[in-house]
Structure formats: structure tokens, C-alpha cells
Amino acid sequence: MDPIRNPYAPGAGQRPPELAGRDRELDQFDITLERVAAGRPERSMVLSGLRGVGKTVLLNALRGQAVKRAWGTGKIEARPDQSIRIPVAQAVHAAVREVAHRHRDPDRVDEVAGVLKAFALRTTLPDRKGMKWTPPVDAVAAKGRADSGDLELDLVELFTDVASLAGDLGVGLGLFVDEMQDIATEELAAICGACHEISQQGAPLVVVGAGLPHLPVALAASKSYAERLFRYVSVDRLPREMADRAWRVPAGTEGVTFEDAALDELYRLTDGYPYFVQAYGKVTWDAAVGSPITAADVLEAAPEAESELAIGFFGARYDRATPAERDYMTAMADLGDGFVATADVARHLARKPQSLSPARDGLIKKGLVYSAERGSVAFTVPHFGKFLRSR
Where is this region: Disordered (predicted)? Predict the structure, then answer.
């Protein structure tokens, strides 16, 4: 098959040619945008799931829907040990810029720009971590608005003013936050508090976050009412019908079909995880000699897909771990897939549980494992245990 015509797209955050299995989330978000713009109450949204299930792709698709409705949008990717004040200021500036040029009152726009500037300039030295940014606007920084240094209060005032600017045009603003689990607990609490206040005001602004499976737990730990503040969406692997669609539809645009046995084999190998669906689809296309694609083509291509995943998807993550952390992950893999008890890991390694805390905490901080329940851990990457057992 012609590799230039290969329609599959394995990549970090790269939208596949057919975004299968996400219609419900997309349709619901359209309703959210309509309701918020009309001043009706609606919750912000949080997407959570393992690595490789398409959270970033879905987050970007939701942002695209807001853009189509002429909303102002901005996006940040949270990072461990970095304050969100400047990233939020940058994202909000991008969102304001998208609506400001349509506003008929330049003085009103300058007033909001001054509040945004004050918010950005209020960054404390420990929060900068090498980041220094000032909104590229001529407006004078406001005084006494979004510049208190209290992040929650400043976010409320900033969100109120920028949402009001968008509301003048009958639209809203959307802030999209990827890797949300990496935000410090106190800053998560500030975001929750600001979303709570904005929701009560009926202001046209939504926050859409995406993160690992323990993100809902982290939000609830930061604010007790967080479980009622957001609409939580679990992003998981694709059911068989949707996985078949993800393979068949792109191939169909090139006049290529699959035998049922080929789809059976592809689903067995990928378990419907979207990143794997694209990775195996790509190498299978290149290995196939013609249409229809057969199970033999899939089996011939599978070792190449496994090799690429072992180096890029799995290996790159394994290499980030220290020797002690690798021992911990290997023990988890030996104990099986899914959640394993930390006490069982300690017994397997013939160690005291408390002596393994640094390794476990390091893995959590690096995003390699997560703990949704006290005393148990699981890999954030699907098939990671299988990869470790094969080494």
C-alpha cells in the first residue's frame, strides 16, 4: 500500500482522521456552549483517563467547537512545580484577543486588558520559576483589581471581567487546561473557587480540564464541593464498534477495506486504546499489499508496531524512572494488571512499605503511576505491565 496515502495518525495529541467514539461528549459540549452563552446555569467539564486514550485530542476538539461559535479560547498545559498564574494570564490574553477586535467599545476593552495586565504582573518571585511575561497591550495595569496576590480572589475578578467582555457580544470564554493533575493542590482549590463563583454569577465562562484518572480525586481533595462543580467525563478505550469505525472510515476514503478477521486481530492487539488503534493501523497499512487488508497483514505488521511502542510510548517513560522506581514498577507488573496493593508490592520486594514511599511518590510525580484509592496504585499507561513483563 502507498505509505503516502496512509490515513492513520499516531501522535501525542494529534487528531485522528476519524474521531470515533466521542460523539456524545462533543454533542453535550455544544449544548453547554449554547446554555452558557444564553446565561443559563451549566457546569464546567473535566476529562480524565489513562495515557493514550485521546484526552488531549478531545480537549482540542472541544476547543474547536467553541472557536466555531466565535468564543474566545485559550489553552494551557500544566507542569509540576510551576504556578499557573502566568500560563492562565497567557491563555486568557489569547481568549480576549479573539473577541476584543469585534467589540465596539475600545475603552471597555482597554479596561479589561488593564485587569489582565495587573493579574499577570502580580506574580511573586517563587512563582516565576524563570517565567516572566507581560500582556503585550498598551493599557495601564489596573489597581485594586485581580492584583491582591490571593490567586482565588484574583481569578474571580479576572474571570468576571473577561467573561463580561465576551458576554457583550453574546458569546463566552473557554479556558482549556491539559495535564490538570499537575497543578498544585492550593492552586486547584483556587480554580475550583473561581469556577464556583463564576457559575453562581451566571457569567459566560467555562473551564475544561483534562488529566489522569486521579484528577477527580485531586479536585475533590482541594475543595469539598468540586464533585458537584464539574461534569466529569471518563475517557476510556473504544468499544469494538467504534474501533472498527476508526480503522474503516479513514481507509474507506482511500478506497480500501478490511476483512473482518483483520479487524478481529487489530482489536485483540490494541484493546481499543485510541493511540494503539492509530499505531497498529498505520503499520498495517504499510505492510498490506492491497485491499482488502487481511489478518495476515496485521500479524506481519504487529512486530513493527510493538517495536515502535517499546521505544517511544513505553520505553521513553521507563527510561525516566530511577533504578528504585523501575524495581517498583517491575514488581507492580509481576503482580498483574490493574490496581495492586502497595503492601503487596512491598512483600514482593521483601521491603518495608515505608521504605518504598520515595519510589512510589516519585512515580506518581512523574505521571507513571496513580493512586485513586489509599493503599493501591496502577499504571497510567495501558499495557505498561505487559511491556515490563516482556523485557
Answer: 1-24
Report the candidate in 217, 230, 223, 212 with the shortest Cα–Cα distance to residue 46.
230
Q: What is the pLDDT of residues 71-93, one digit of tens each?
A: 999 999 999 888 999 999 999 99
- Overall pTM > 0.85: yes
| Residue 179 neighbours by CB under 8 Å, 6+ apart | 77, 78, 79, 210, 211, 367
Owner of C-alpha cell 533504578 = 323
Q: At what angle do helices 274-287 and 295-308 cross, to 10 degrees?
A: 120
3-state helix, strand, coil in the chain (%, to 5): 55, 10, 35
Q: What span, in angstroms and rounded, lies between the C-alpha atoms of 247 and 249?
A: 6
CATH number, domain 321-390: 1.10.10.10
Report the SS3 class of residue 234.
strand
**DSSP SS3 for 362:** helix
User: What separation in angstroms does the CA of 37 have from each of 54, 101, 140, 208, 376?
Assistant: 27, 19, 29, 16, 42
Residue 282: closest CA among 4, 56, 60: 4
CATH level 3 topology of 23-234? Rossmann fold (3.40.50)
